[in-house]
Write a structure and sequence with these properties.
Length: 589
């Protein structure tokens, strides 16, 4: 089964169990108490201690599923293995049918005589046009408009009729016993299910290829005519019915003998308690091992929680100048920018020359290591190239392929660039980036404005911060067009506010009492010097959500005035009542 089928099956089973519990359990309990004298075990205990359950089913008609030894299939036990002789008139009606017979019975639940008139007449019109005869279980004395080829009776020996070779197919309500008899005798089934398990039974015959279902609400002349003609003309239904019949009949012993054997087995072994599964004592959670799975899934989280609540120092790759000021514990150490070279290294000669000789500056373009520029969709790549080709500045593009089709003269491509050192060059006008944390941090440190094309993760958030700080512009990847690129680049080149804000934020970022790497080393050594520095760990780690946020304290503080107000109100009420009684007493005297 696929997910939707399993979900539907689970919900149906759960709702059925709930319905059975709410609707039937107390009624069964009442019947049990009424008919069986004390002392007696509880009905629930009795259910759990059943040594044998006889199932009116067989795997050939359903789906293979694991069964305990005390769940015994006896499906078809009611079917006659040796066909009895039919009454002479029925035998003759069947034997002399040149094109066969359709047998029609809606069981004992819905009588044919109770069918709505329009549905009954629709059936009669279709039956009257058929080249075959029809045997209809009709519980009334007469059937108005009955065609000549239709024989009605209040009762038919159904099992023996279905065993007759002239029966073409069986129109039924889809009851379990009826579908079982049809299956045993290899007769295709046209079902009109009404309620209960009938729809499920017909669903199984349809899935197995020897049945057709007509919903009762859709029982019209057109639907009946189509279904009957399909059954009469398409041999696949009878062929599948014979195949399933052969599987159903192929059993080592007849079902009734099997039932007798197992009943006697239980009697011989004093109740055969060894057949009762220990699973009867388990609740839903235990039976499905949900507690075990939960525990196994919880272990990694418990380990993580125990680690996170005992961390002596946490090194944060951030700095308040690039984010928002927030309170930090002493063991939360900001080391943002620790990877940046404080003294830029010399660039390769060709790159140095490309940058130094750029009359109007250079744009540096890199999408990091997650999204390679070479993997850009062709239309977005070509849009970038057309815009770059019109620019008065040069472009350094980290391009991971050997060639870039349509590359303009002012664009230099390489599979790798020394990014940190390039961003430190004074000729870099701005940085086109994916918005990764390290890239935006390097651009901020060197005072370079940022044009971001975020893809996933924290990239959108990082670019949002640069944009809010006034030194960045964001283009959504889905909106990466020639028009949006051209506007953003021209805005960056012509509006000096971006470079000014970048220099301002850079000055804040650089203004630190020591470099981030030295700070990281100091605190790591501090923890080592002080045997784990447990004194840095906050006691808040031991508090739950309610305690940490003082919700219990606030609740009490809110409750006190409420209680005082209620007390004053109650006191006033009593004083007023006492005063009223005194006034009444004076008036009476």
């Amino acid at each position: 089964m696929n997910f939707c089928q399993r979900l539907a099956n689970t919900l149906y089973t759960a709702s059925e169990n709930i319905f059975m519990h709410l609707h039937y359990d107390h009624r069964q309990e009442a019947v049990y108490n009424n008919h069986f004298a004390d002392p007696k075990p509880k009905l629930e205990d009795l259910r759990k201690s059943l040594p044998l359950v006889l199932l009116n089913s067989h795997f050939s008609m359903s789906y293979p599923r694991p069964n305990l030894p005390n769940l015994v299939d006896i499906g078809g036990f009611h079917i006659n293995r040796n066909r009895k002789s039919l009454p002479k008139d029925l035998q003759e009606f069947l034997d002399t049918a040149p094109n066969g017979v359709i047998y029609f019975s809606m069981g004992s639940t819905l009588k044919g005589a109770d069918l709505p008139v329009e549905k009954r007449d629709a059936l009669l019109r279709v039956f009257g046009r058929l080249p075959v005869r029809v045997m209809w279980k009709w519980e009334d004395d007469a059937l108005p408009g009955k065609p000549e080829n239709v024989l009605i009776r209040k009762w038919f020996p159904q099992d023996d009729i279905l065993a007759h070779p002239k029966v073409r197919f069986f129109i039924t309500h889809g009851g379990l016993l009826s579908t079982m008899e049809a299956t045993y005798h290899g007769v295709p089934v046209l079902g009109i299910p009404i309620f209960g398990d009938q729809g499920m039974n017909m669903g199984k015959t349809q899935a197995a290829g020897y049945g057709i279902t007509i919903e009762f609400t859709n029982l019209t002349e057109q639907s009946i005519s189509w279904a009957i003609n399909e059954m009469l003309t398409n041999t696949k239904y009878s062929e599948r019915a014979k195949t399933i019949s052969a599987r159903f009949r192929d059993q080592p012993e007849d079902p009734m003998s099997r039932a007798v054997y197992w009943i006697e087995y239980v009697a011989r072994h004093q109740g055969a308690e060894h057949l009762i599964s220990g699973g009867q004592e388990l609740n839903f959670i235990q039976y499905h091992n949900l507690d075990v799975f939960g525990f196994l899934l919880l272990i990694p989280f418990l380990v993580i929680i125990s680690i996170t609540t005992s961390l002596s120092a946490i090194l944060l790759n951030s700095h308040f100048s690039m984010s928002y000021p927030r309170p930090n514990l002493p063991n939360y150490i900001e080391i943002g920018g620790f990877h940046i070279n404080k003294k830029s290294k010399p660039l390769p000669k060709d790159l140095e020359e490309f940058l130094d000789t750029a009359p109007n500056g250079v744009i540096y373009f890199s999408m990091g290591s997650n999204l390679k520029s070479a993997d850009l969709p062709v239309e977005k790549r070509d849009a970038l190239l057309r815009v770059f080709g019109r620019l008065p500045v040069r472009v350094l593009w980290k391009w991971e392929d050997d060639a870039l089709p349509g590359k303009p003269e002012n664009v230099l491509i390489r599979k790798w660039f020394p990014q940190d050192d390039i961003l430190a060059h004074p000729k870099v006008r701005f940085f086109i980036t994916h918005g990764g944390l390290l890239s935006t941090m390097e651009a901020t440190y060197h005072g370079v404005p940022v044009l971001g094309i975020p893809i996933f993760g924290d990239q959108g958030m990082n670019m949002g911060k640069t944009q809010a700080a006034g030194y960045g512009i964001t283009i959504e990847f889905t909106n990466l067009t020639e028009q949006s690129i051209s506007w953003a680049i021209n805005e960056m080149l012509t509006n000096t506010k971006y470079s000014e804000r970048a220099k301002t934020i850079s000055a804040r970022f650089r203004d630190q009492p020591e470099d981030p790497m030295s700070r990281a080393v100091y605190w790591i050594e501090y923890v080592a010097r002080h045997q784990g520095a447990k004194h840095l760990i906050s006691g808040g780690q031991e508090l739950n959500f309610i305690q940490y946020h003082n919700l219990d304290v606030f609740a009490l503080l809110l409750l006190i005035p409420v209680l005082i107000i209620l007390g004053i109100r109650l006191l006033c009420k009593k004083l007023c009542m006492k005063s009223s009684r005194k006034d009444l007493k004076k008036k009476y005297n």
